[in-house]
Design a protein that fits this description.
Helix content is 44%, strand content 29%. By secondary structure, the chain is an alpha+beta fold. The protein has 2 domains: 2-60; 87-157, no CATH class. It has a 3-stranded antiparallel beta sheet with strand order 1-2-3. A hairpin with a 4-residue loop joins strand 1 and strand 2 (121-137).
């Protein structure tokens, strides 16, 4: 329970810090943080545009079909670039790489975060080295996969 409490406190502090870059009314910041960290009941709760407008007190763009189309197009571009919606299974990734002629160990490059503006961008990527291994089980040796992070970090580009 202590870990859960500390994690929630840390999330609240981070949320306050990030929101403070954009807002300065402490009462509104507190309301937003409380709603985001406990008011929805789940981290994956989809916040509707109406709820966002209420929470942010009208700082959400009005309905705009063209803007919505452009945002959806941008999401699809990021989704393809980051392979969102694709399940990452190290065993399958290794088998696909071997089937395409690569020899183990295989390096799997993963783009985890992309932040872009008109003038610059940042990406957080990591490289996983995938290797076949034998693991001991009560029934004897069984094939397995070792996935080791061999590189990760931010890259800035203009």
């Amino acid at each position: 329970m202590g870990d859960v409490y500390r994690s929630r406190q840390q999330i609240g502090r981070l949320a306050r810090t990030l929101i403070h870059y954009h807002r300065h009314d402490e009462r509104k910041i507190k309301k937003i943080v409380e709603k985001l960290t406990g008011g929805f009941g789940s981290h994956d709760y989809p916040i509707s545009r109406a709820e966002a407008r209420e929470l942010l007190e009208a700082q959400v763009a009005k309905d705009d079909a063209e803007l919505e189309r452009l945002i959806w197009e941008l999401f699809r571009d990021f989704s393809a670039e980051m392979k969102l919606g694709e399940i990452f299974e190290p065993t399958i990734a290794l088998q696909v790489a071997i089937a395409s002629g690569q020899q183990p160990p295989v390096l799997d490059e993963q783009k985890l975060v992309v932040i872009e503006s008109e003038t610059a961008g940042d990406e957080f990527t990591r490289g996983l080295q995938l290797s076949p291994v034998q693991t001991m089980t009560p029934a004897g040796p069984a094939p397995g996969i070792q996935a080791a992070v061999v590189r990760q970090g931010w890259t800035h580009y203009n």
